[in-house]
Protein backbone atom coordinates (compact mmCIF):
# COMPACT_ATOMS: atom_id res chain seq x y z
CA UNK A 1 0.00 0.00 0.00
CA UNK A 2 1.29 3.41 -0.88
CA UNK A 3 1.92 5.73 2.04
CA UNK A 4 0.23 9.12 1.86
CA UNK A 5 3.56 10.68 2.71
CA UNK A 6 5.79 8.81 0.31
CA UNK A 7 7.63 11.12 -1.99
CA UNK A 8 6.51 10.31 -5.52
CA UNK A 9 7.48 13.22 -7.73
CA UNK A 10 6.49 13.34 -11.40
CA UNK A 11 4.03 10.47 -10.96
CA UNK A 12 1.14 12.15 -12.78
CA UNK A 13 0.60 12.04 -16.53
CA UNK A 14 2.09 15.53 -16.77
CA UNK A 15 5.00 14.22 -14.73
CA UNK A 16 5.56 11.46 -17.26
CA UNK A 17 5.53 13.98 -20.10
CA UNK A 18 7.95 16.28 -18.31
CA UNK A 19 10.24 13.35 -17.51
CA UNK A 20 10.22 12.34 -21.14
CA UNK A 21 11.09 15.90 -22.19
CA UNK A 22 13.91 16.30 -19.68
CA UNK A 23 15.40 12.88 -20.40
CA UNK A 24 15.42 13.62 -24.10
CA UNK A 25 17.09 16.98 -23.59
CA UNK A 26 19.68 15.48 -21.25
CA UNK A 27 20.49 12.80 -23.83
CA UNK A 28 21.03 15.53 -26.44
CA UNK A 29 23.29 17.47 -24.08
CA UNK A 30 25.33 14.38 -23.25
CA UNK A 31 25.68 13.48 -26.92
CA UNK A 32 26.99 17.00 -27.67
CA UNK A 33 29.40 16.96 -24.72
CA UNK A 34 27.42 19.80 -23.19
CA UNK A 35 26.11 18.09 -20.04
CA UNK A 36 27.49 19.88 -17.02
CA UNK A 37 28.36 18.72 -13.54
CA UNK A 38 29.54 20.57 -10.49
CA UNK A 39 33.08 20.12 -9.17
CA UNK A 40 33.06 20.37 -5.38
CA UNK A 41 35.76 22.78 -4.31
CA UNK A 42 36.69 25.00 -1.41
CA UNK A 43 38.67 28.16 -2.00
CA UNK A 44 41.35 28.01 0.67
CA UNK A 45 43.17 31.07 -0.62
CA UNK A 46 42.51 33.80 -3.18
CA UNK A 47 43.69 31.58 -6.06
CA UNK A 48 43.95 28.20 -4.33
CA UNK A 49 41.23 25.57 -4.21
CA UNK A 50 40.98 22.21 -2.48
CA UNK A 51 38.84 19.38 -3.82
CA UNK A 52 36.89 16.95 -1.67
CA UNK A 53 39.68 14.40 -2.01
CA UNK A 54 42.25 16.93 -0.83
CA UNK A 55 43.79 17.77 -4.20
CA UNK A 56 45.12 21.33 -4.31
CA UNK A 57 44.65 23.49 -7.41
CA UNK A 58 45.83 26.88 -8.57
CA UNK A 59 42.77 28.60 -9.98
CA UNK A 60 42.94 30.48 -13.27
CA UNK A 61 39.23 30.77 -13.83
CA UNK A 62 37.81 32.79 -10.96
CA UNK A 63 36.85 36.45 -10.98
CA UNK A 64 38.84 37.29 -7.88
CA UNK A 65 40.86 39.86 -9.80
CA UNK A 66 42.48 41.57 -6.85
CA UNK A 67 42.52 38.57 -4.53
CA UNK A 68 40.45 40.45 -1.96
CA UNK A 69 38.41 37.41 -0.84
CA UNK A 70 41.18 36.62 1.61
CA UNK A 71 42.45 40.12 2.36
CA UNK A 72 42.84 40.51 6.15
CA UNK A 73 40.76 43.71 6.26
CA UNK A 74 37.96 42.20 4.21
CA UNK A 75 37.96 39.00 6.27
CA UNK A 76 37.94 40.99 9.51
CA UNK A 77 35.07 43.21 8.40
CA UNK A 78 33.02 40.20 7.32
CA UNK A 79 33.75 38.34 10.55
CA UNK A 80 32.80 41.34 12.70
CA UNK A 81 29.55 41.79 10.78
CA UNK A 82 28.76 38.11 11.11
CA UNK A 83 29.23 38.13 14.88
CA UNK A 84 27.35 41.39 15.41
CA UNK A 85 24.67 41.08 12.73
CA UNK A 86 24.05 37.33 12.57
CA UNK A 87 24.05 35.03 9.59
CA UNK A 88 21.17 36.50 7.60
CA UNK A 89 19.59 39.85 6.81
CA UNK A 90 16.29 38.01 7.54
CA UNK A 91 14.14 39.80 5.03
CA UNK A 92 13.64 42.05 2.08
CA UNK A 93 15.39 45.39 2.43
CA UNK A 94 12.01 47.12 2.69
CA UNK A 95 10.83 44.88 5.54
CA UNK A 96 13.43 43.68 8.07
CA UNK A 97 16.56 43.51 5.92
CA UNK A 98 17.43 47.21 5.95
CA UNK A 99 21.01 46.69 7.13
CA UNK A 100 22.57 50.11 7.71
CA UNK A 101 25.84 49.01 6.10
CA UNK A 102 23.81 48.43 2.93
CA UNK A 103 23.02 52.13 2.65
CA UNK A 104 26.64 53.03 3.46
CA UNK A 105 27.78 50.70 0.70
CA UNK A 106 25.34 52.22 -1.78
CA UNK A 107 26.64 55.72 -1.04
CA UNK A 108 30.20 54.50 -1.47
CA UNK A 109 29.36 52.70 -4.72
CA UNK A 110 27.54 55.75 -6.07
CA UNK A 111 30.62 57.91 -5.40
CA UNK A 112 32.88 55.24 -6.87
CA UNK A 113 30.83 55.22 -10.08
CA UNK A 114 30.34 58.99 -10.18
CA UNK A 115 26.55 58.65 -9.89
CA UNK A 116 23.98 60.32 -7.67
CA UNK A 117 22.74 57.10 -6.13
CA UNK A 118 22.97 53.33 -6.20
CA UNK A 119 20.79 50.39 -5.22
CA UNK A 120 22.01 46.96 -4.17
CA UNK A 121 20.55 43.75 -5.54
CA UNK A 122 21.24 40.16 -4.54
CA UNK A 123 23.45 39.48 -7.54
CA UNK A 124 24.75 41.25 -10.61
CA UNK A 125 22.38 39.07 -12.60
CA UNK A 126 19.41 40.44 -10.70
CA UNK A 127 20.66 44.03 -10.92
CA UNK A 128 20.57 43.84 -14.72
CA UNK A 129 17.27 42.02 -14.73
CA UNK A 130 15.73 44.45 -12.26
CA UNK A 131 16.96 47.60 -13.97
CA UNK A 132 15.92 46.54 -17.46
CA UNK A 133 12.49 45.16 -16.84
CA UNK A 134 11.49 47.74 -14.29
CA UNK A 135 12.49 50.72 -16.44
CA UNK A 136 11.57 49.53 -19.94
CA UNK A 137 8.17 48.57 -21.21
CA UNK A 138 6.38 47.37 -24.31
CA UNK A 139 6.85 49.88 -27.12
CA UNK A 140 10.38 50.81 -26.00
CA UNK A 141 13.44 49.93 -28.07
CA UNK A 142 16.57 48.36 -26.69
CA UNK A 143 19.72 48.02 -28.79
CA UNK A 144 21.78 45.18 -27.34
CA UNK A 145 25.28 43.92 -28.26
CA UNK A 146 25.10 40.30 -29.39
CA UNK A 147 27.69 39.24 -26.80
CA UNK A 148 26.01 40.87 -23.81
CA UNK A 149 25.78 38.90 -20.59
CA UNK A 150 22.80 36.54 -20.20
CA UNK A 151 21.34 38.73 -17.47
CA UNK A 152 21.06 41.63 -19.93
CA UNK A 153 19.51 39.38 -22.55
CA UNK A 154 16.98 38.06 -20.03
CA UNK A 155 16.18 41.52 -18.64
CA UNK A 156 15.53 42.82 -22.17
CA UNK A 157 13.24 39.88 -22.93
CA UNK A 158 11.20 40.18 -19.76
CA UNK A 159 10.81 43.95 -20.21
CA UNK A 160 8.59 43.49 -23.27
CA UNK A 161 10.56 46.13 -25.16
CA UNK A 162 11.53 45.42 -28.74
CA UNK A 163 15.08 44.06 -28.69
CA UNK A 164 17.36 44.94 -31.58
CA UNK A 165 20.60 42.96 -31.41
CA UNK A 166 23.65 44.52 -33.08
CA UNK A 167 26.85 42.74 -34.09
CA UNK A 168 29.48 42.65 -31.40
CA UNK A 169 31.07 46.08 -30.97
CA UNK A 170 30.08 46.90 -34.56
CA UNK A 171 29.26 50.60 -34.46
CA UNK A 172 28.32 50.72 -38.16
CA UNK A 173 25.75 48.00 -37.62
CA UNK A 174 24.47 49.74 -34.49
CA UNK A 175 24.16 53.07 -36.29
CA UNK A 176 22.24 51.48 -39.17
CA UNK A 177 19.84 49.98 -36.66
CA UNK A 178 19.45 53.25 -34.76
CA UNK A 179 18.83 55.06 -38.05
CA UNK A 180 16.19 52.52 -39.04
CA UNK A 181 14.20 53.45 -35.94
CA UNK A 182 14.98 57.19 -35.98
CA UNK A 183 11.43 58.10 -37.01
CA UNK A 184 10.09 56.58 -33.79
CA UNK A 185 9.99 59.64 -31.55
CA UNK A 186 7.85 58.23 -28.73
CA UNK A 187 9.76 55.15 -27.55
CA UNK A 188 12.36 55.20 -24.82
CA UNK A 189 15.48 54.00 -26.63
CA UNK A 190 18.32 52.36 -24.76
CA UNK A 191 21.69 51.05 -25.90
CA UNK A 192 22.96 48.37 -23.51
CA UNK A 193 26.39 46.76 -23.40
CA UNK A 194 28.89 44.99 -21.20
CA UNK A 195 31.78 47.33 -20.29
CA UNK A 196 34.28 44.45 -20.41
CA UNK A 197 32.72 41.51 -22.24
CA UNK A 198 32.47 38.49 -20.01
CA UNK A 199 33.45 35.85 -22.57
CA UNK A 200 35.77 37.78 -24.90
CA UNK A 201 37.47 40.09 -22.41
CA UNK A 202 37.37 43.07 -24.77
CA UNK A 203 35.99 46.54 -24.01
CA UNK A 204 32.91 48.25 -25.36
CA UNK A 205 33.61 51.27 -27.58
CA UNK A 206 32.42 53.93 -25.20
CA UNK A 207 33.47 57.01 -27.21
CA UNK A 208 31.55 55.82 -30.28
CA UNK A 209 28.61 54.70 -28.16
CA UNK A 210 28.51 58.13 -26.55
CA UNK A 211 28.46 59.81 -29.97
CA UNK A 212 25.66 57.54 -31.21
CA UNK A 213 23.72 58.05 -28.02
CA UNK A 214 23.84 61.81 -28.56
CA UNK A 215 23.10 61.63 -32.26
CA UNK A 216 20.05 59.41 -31.83
CA UNK A 217 18.80 60.64 -28.47
CA UNK A 218 19.07 57.29 -26.70
CA UNK A 219 20.04 56.26 -23.21
CA UNK A 220 23.15 54.21 -22.48
CA UNK A 221 23.46 51.39 -19.96
CA UNK A 222 26.80 49.68 -19.23
CA UNK A 223 27.42 46.58 -17.13
CA UNK A 224 30.81 46.93 -15.44
CA UNK A 225 30.94 43.52 -13.72
CA UNK A 226 34.37 42.67 -15.17
CA UNK A 227 35.56 46.28 -15.27
CA UNK A 228 35.44 47.27 -11.60
CA UNK A 229 38.78 46.97 -9.92
CA UNK A 230 40.30 46.12 -13.29
CA UNK A 231 40.21 49.10 -15.66
CA UNK A 232 40.22 52.86 -15.27
CA UNK A 233 41.87 55.05 -12.65
CA UNK A 234 41.10 53.64 -9.20
CA UNK A 235 39.48 50.60 -10.85
CA UNK A 236 36.35 52.67 -11.36
CA UNK A 237 35.51 50.94 -14.62
CA UNK A 238 34.59 51.82 -18.17
CA UNK A 239 33.67 55.52 -17.88
CA UNK A 240 36.82 56.26 -15.93
CA UNK A 241 38.96 54.22 -18.33
CA UNK A 242 37.81 56.31 -21.29
CA UNK A 243 37.78 59.54 -19.28
CA UNK A 244 34.13 60.05 -20.23
CA UNK A 245 32.52 60.60 -16.85
CA UNK A 246 28.83 61.35 -17.03
CA UNK A 247 28.30 59.53 -20.34
CA UNK A 248 26.52 56.45 -19.06
CA UNK A 249 22.94 56.86 -17.84
CA UNK A 250 22.65 53.55 -16.00
CA UNK A 251 25.62 51.65 -14.66
CA UNK A 252 25.36 48.15 -13.24
CA UNK A 253 27.91 45.91 -11.65
CA UNK A 254 28.58 43.12 -9.24
CA UNK A 255 30.05 42.71 -5.78
CA UNK A 256 31.12 39.17 -6.67
CA UNK A 257 34.19 39.80 -8.82
CA UNK A 258 36.85 42.30 -7.74
CA UNK A 259 34.76 43.27 -4.72
CA UNK A 260 35.13 39.83 -3.16
CA UNK A 261 31.55 39.43 -1.99
CA UNK A 262 28.11 38.58 -3.37
CA UNK A 263 25.54 40.99 -4.69
CA UNK A 264 25.02 43.46 -7.49
CA UNK A 265 24.10 47.09 -7.95
CA UNK A 266 22.54 49.67 -10.21
CA UNK A 267 23.94 53.22 -10.11
CA UNK A 268 22.15 56.13 -11.75
CA UNK A 269 20.21 59.29 -10.95
CA UNK A 270 18.43 59.72 -7.60
CA UNK A 271 15.09 59.48 -9.32
CA UNK A 272 15.83 56.22 -11.15
CA UNK A 273 17.14 54.67 -7.95
CA UNK A 274 14.12 55.87 -5.96
CA UNK A 275 11.83 54.25 -8.50
CA UNK A 276 13.76 50.97 -8.58
CA UNK A 277 13.56 50.91 -4.78
CA UNK A 278 9.76 50.97 -5.04
CA UNK A 279 9.24 48.75 -8.01
CA UNK A 280 12.17 46.51 -9.01
CA UNK A 281 10.74 43.09 -8.21
CA UNK A 282 14.09 41.29 -7.71
CA UNK A 283 14.84 43.96 -5.09
CA UNK A 284 11.42 44.18 -3.43
CA UNK A 285 10.62 40.48 -3.23
CA UNK A 286 13.89 38.92 -2.20
CA UNK A 287 15.79 38.73 1.07
CA UNK A 288 18.68 41.19 1.11
CA UNK A 289 22.29 40.01 1.03
CA UNK A 290 23.74 39.09 4.41
CA UNK A 291 25.44 41.46 6.85
CA UNK A 292 28.80 39.81 6.11
CA UNK A 293 28.34 40.11 2.33
CA UNK A 294 27.61 43.80 2.78
CA UNK A 295 30.53 44.36 5.12
CA UNK A 296 32.93 42.42 2.89
CA UNK A 297 32.05 44.50 -0.16
CA UNK A 298 32.29 47.73 1.81
CA UNK A 299 35.72 46.75 3.10
CA UNK A 300 36.84 45.59 -0.35
CA UNK A 301 35.88 48.95 -1.82
CA UNK A 302 37.86 50.61 0.97
CA UNK A 303 40.88 48.39 0.27
CA UNK A 304 40.52 49.18 -3.44
CA UNK A 305 40.79 52.86 -2.59
CA UNK A 306 43.79 52.36 -0.29
CA UNK A 307 45.75 49.61 -2.02
CA UNK A 308 44.14 49.58 -5.47
CA UNK A 309 47.02 51.23 -7.33
CA UNK A 310 49.54 48.61 -6.20
CA UNK A 311 47.16 45.65 -6.66
CA UNK A 312 46.09 46.88 -10.08
CA UNK A 313 49.70 47.41 -11.08
CA UNK A 314 50.48 43.78 -10.24
CA UNK A 315 47.39 42.66 -12.16
CA UNK A 316 48.45 44.73 -15.19
CA UNK A 317 51.97 43.27 -15.07
CA UNK A 318 50.57 39.73 -14.83
CA UNK A 319 48.26 40.49 -17.74
CA UNK A 320 51.09 41.77 -19.92
CA UNK A 321 53.30 38.81 -19.01
CA UNK A 322 50.57 36.25 -19.74
CA UNK A 323 49.33 37.84 -22.95
CA UNK A 324 52.89 38.12 -24.27
CA UNK A 325 53.67 34.55 -23.21
CA UNK A 326 50.60 33.18 -24.97
CA UNK A 327 51.40 35.26 -28.04
CA UNK A 328 54.94 33.80 -28.14
CA UNK A 329 53.43 30.30 -27.95
CA UNK A 330 51.18 31.28 -30.90
CA UNK A 331 48.03 30.23 -29.08
CA UNK A 332 44.79 31.62 -30.53
CA UNK A 333 44.13 34.29 -27.94
CA UNK A 334 41.54 37.02 -28.42
CA UNK A 335 43.35 40.37 -28.33
CA UNK A 336 42.72 42.78 -25.49
CA UNK A 337 44.11 44.51 -22.46
CA UNK A 338 42.17 42.85 -19.66
CA UNK A 339 43.15 39.96 -17.36
CA UNK A 340 40.25 38.00 -18.88
CA UNK A 341 42.05 36.10 -21.64
CA UNK A 342 40.08 33.75 -23.88
CA UNK A 343 42.04 31.06 -25.69
CA UNK A 344 39.79 29.82 -28.47
CA UNK A 345 39.93 26.05 -28.81
CA UNK A 346 36.96 25.45 -31.12
CA UNK A 347 35.64 21.99 -30.39
CA UNK A 348 34.02 21.19 -27.08
CA UNK A 349 35.91 17.88 -26.94
CA UNK A 350 39.36 19.44 -27.28
CA UNK A 351 38.52 22.17 -24.79
CA UNK A 352 37.36 19.53 -22.32
CA UNK A 353 40.50 17.44 -22.92
CA UNK A 354 42.80 20.41 -22.27
CA UNK A 355 40.75 21.32 -19.20
CA UNK A 356 41.25 17.72 -17.91
CA UNK A 357 44.98 17.73 -18.79
CA UNK A 358 45.53 20.91 -16.76
CA UNK A 359 43.39 19.68 -13.89
CA UNK A 360 45.50 16.52 -13.56
CA UNK A 361 48.47 18.82 -13.16
CA UNK A 362 46.91 21.02 -10.50
CA UNK A 363 45.58 23.88 -12.63
CA UNK A 364 41.93 24.87 -12.80
CA UNK A 365 41.24 26.63 -16.06
CA UNK A 366 37.72 25.69 -16.96
CA UNK A 367 36.58 25.16 -20.51
CA UNK A 368 33.72 27.46 -21.46
CA UNK A 369 31.30 25.88 -23.89
CA UNK A 370 27.99 26.68 -25.53
CA UNK A 371 25.52 28.09 -24.59
CA UNK A 372 27.89 30.45 -22.71
CA UNK A 373 29.71 31.05 -26.00
CA UNK A 374 28.68 30.52 -29.65
CA UNK A 375 28.92 27.02 -31.16
CA UNK A 376 32.39 26.23 -32.47
CA UNK A 377 34.10 28.72 -30.16
CA UNK A 378 34.58 26.63 -27.03
CA UNK A 379 37.44 28.18 -25.16
CA UNK A 380 39.64 28.26 -22.14
CA UNK A 381 38.91 31.49 -20.37
CA UNK A 382 42.00 32.32 -18.42
CA UNK A 383 41.52 34.95 -15.73
CA UNK A 384 44.36 36.42 -13.74
CA UNK A 385 44.45 37.72 -10.21
CA UNK A 386 46.83 40.06 -8.46
CA UNK A 387 47.20 37.17 -6.00
CA UNK A 388 48.86 34.90 -8.57
CA UNK A 389 52.64 34.61 -8.42
CA UNK A 390 55.04 34.81 -11.35
CA UNK A 391 56.01 31.10 -11.01
CA UNK A 392 52.31 30.19 -11.18
CA UNK A 393 51.98 32.17 -14.40
CA UNK A 394 55.09 30.48 -15.81
CA UNK A 395 53.75 27.07 -14.86
CA UNK A 396 50.42 27.59 -16.59
CA UNK A 397 52.19 28.83 -19.72
CA UNK A 398 54.41 25.77 -19.94
CA UNK A 399 51.48 23.41 -19.27
CA UNK A 400 49.39 25.12 -21.93
CA UNK A 401 52.25 24.69 -24.40
CA UNK A 402 52.44 20.98 -23.57
CA UNK A 403 48.67 20.52 -23.77
CA UNK A 404 48.45 22.28 -27.10
CA UNK A 405 51.11 19.99 -28.59
CA UNK A 406 49.84 16.76 -27.08
CA UNK A 407 46.09 17.06 -27.43
CA UNK A 408 44.77 16.80 -30.98
C1 LIG B 1 29.34 37.98 -13.74
C2 LIG B 1 28.54 38.92 -14.52
C3 LIG B 1 27.25 39.27 -14.11
C4 LIG B 1 26.56 38.58 -12.97
O1 LIG B 1 27.06 38.95 -11.74
P1 LIG B 1 26.72 38.02 -10.49
O2 LIG B 1 26.90 38.91 -9.34
O3 LIG B 1 27.67 36.88 -10.54
O4 LIG B 1 25.30 37.58 -10.67
C5 LIG B 1 26.58 40.23 -14.82
N1 LIG B 1 27.12 40.81 -15.91
C6 LIG B 1 28.35 40.48 -16.35
C7 LIG B 1 28.91 41.16 -17.55
C8 LIG B 1 29.08 39.51 -15.68
O5 LIG B 1 30.27 39.16 -16.13
Cofactors, ions, other ligands: pyridoxal-5'-phosphate
Overall mean pLDDT stands at: 95
CATH class of the largest domain: Alpha Beta
CATH level-3 fold name of the largest domain: Aspartate Aminotransferase, domain 2
Strand content: 15-25%
Residue runs with pLDDT of under 50 for 5 or more positions: none
In sequence order, what are the helices and strands, one letter per element? HEEEHHEHEHEHEHEHEEHHHEHEEEH
Write down the Rg.
22 Å
**Biggest sheet statistics:** 7 strands, mixed
Q: Helical segment tally? A: 13
Any idea how many domains?
2
Number of strands: 14
The CATH architecture name of the largest domain reads 3-Layer(aba) Sandwich
Based on helices, strands and strand pairing, what is the structural class? alpha/beta
Gross morphology is globular
Protein name: 8-amino-7-oxononanoate synthase
Catalytic activity: 6-carboxyhexanoyl-[ACP] + L-alanine + H(+) = (8S)-8-amino-7-oxononanoate + holo-[ACP] + CO2
Pathway: Cofactor biosynthesis; biotin biosynthesis
Domain Aminotransferase class I/classII large: 58-398
Distinctive features:
PyrdxlP-dep_Trfase; Aspartate Aminotransferase, domain 2; 408 residues; 7-stranded mixed sheet; single chain; binds pyridoxal-5'-phosphate; 2 domains; PyrdxlP-dep_Trfase_major; EC 2.3.1.47; Aspartate Aminotransferase, domain 1; alpha/beta
Question: Would you write up a description of this structure?
Answer:
This protein has 408 residues and is of the alpha/beta class. The chain is built from 13 helices and 14 strands. The strands form three sheets. Strands 4-10-9-8-7-5-6 form a seven-stranded mixed β-sheet, with helices on both faces. The protein has a four-stranded mixed β-sheet with strand order 1-2-3-12. Helix 8 links the parallel strand 8 (219-223) and strand 9 (250-254). Helix 3 runs parallel beside helix 11 (291-328), helix 6 (171-180) packs parallel to helix 7 (206-216) and helix 11 crosses helix 13. It starts with 12 loop residues before the first helix and ends with a helix. The mean pLDDT is 95.
Amino acid sequence: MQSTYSHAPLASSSGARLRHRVEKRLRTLHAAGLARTITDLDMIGPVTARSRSGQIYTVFSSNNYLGLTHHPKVLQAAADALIKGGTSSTGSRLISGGIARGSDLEKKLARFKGCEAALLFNTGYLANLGALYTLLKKGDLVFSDELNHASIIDGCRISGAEVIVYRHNDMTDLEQKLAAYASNQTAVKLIVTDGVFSMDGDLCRLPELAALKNRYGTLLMVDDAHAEGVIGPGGRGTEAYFGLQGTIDIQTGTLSKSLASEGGYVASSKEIIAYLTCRARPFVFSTFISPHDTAAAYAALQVLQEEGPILMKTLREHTRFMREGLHTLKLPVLPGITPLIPIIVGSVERAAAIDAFLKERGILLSAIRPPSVPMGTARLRLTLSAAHTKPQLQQVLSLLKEAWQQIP
